[in-house]
Amino acid sequence: MTLSSLVTALAVGAVLGLGARWILRAVPFWVPLGVAVGAAVLGTVVGRLAGIDTSTVTALEVVLQVAFAAAAVTLVAMTGDVRG
């Protein structure tokens, strides 16, 4: 994993995690953020294992990061504790 891939995964995860936190008020702040960042990094790892070009960040890698992070945040939203 290159540094640019890691930075991209962190950025994608942070944006999706913070966006989810804006929508999800029933879960703590750090949960969607941490899950989204972890899932975006996992998307990068899966992309590298699938043979995506390792020299630079590609559009397919970013799509995988977004897909993994969105799926993980959706699971958090579905299983989050409803307060109130």
Q: What does this 3D model show about the protein?
A:
The chain is built from 3 helices and no strands. With 84 residues, it is mostly helical. Helix 1 runs antiparallel to helix 2. It is elongated and about 45 Å long.
Topology:
Elements: H1 3-23, H2 30-49, H3 59-79
Question: What attributes does this structure have?
Answer:
84 residues, mainly alpha, 74% helix, 0% strand, elongated
Contiguous helical run count:
3
**Helical/strand content category:** mainly alpha
Mean pLDDT: 86
State the end-to-end distance: 42 Å
Provide the gyration radius in Å: 13 Å
Portion of residues in beta strands equals under 5%
Summarize the entry for a quick read.
The protein has helices at 3-23, 30-49, 59-79. It is an all-alpha fold and 84 residues long.
